[in-house]
Amino acid sequence: MRKPIIAGNWKMNNTAKQGVQLVNELKPLVKDANCEVVVCVPAIDIPAVAEALKGSNIALGAQNVHFAEKGAYTGEISADMLKEYGVKYVIIGHSERRQYFGETDETVNKRTLAALAAGLTPIVCIGETLEERETGKTEEVLDRQITEGMKGIDDISKIVIAYEPVWAIGTGRTATAEQANETIGYIRKKCAEVFCPKCAEKVRIQYGGSMNAGNCKQLMAMSEIDGGLIGGASLKSADFSAIVHYDEQGLKLNKDLL
Ligand code: PEP
Question: What's the 177 CA to ligand 1 centre distance in angstroms?
Answer without folding.
Answer: 16
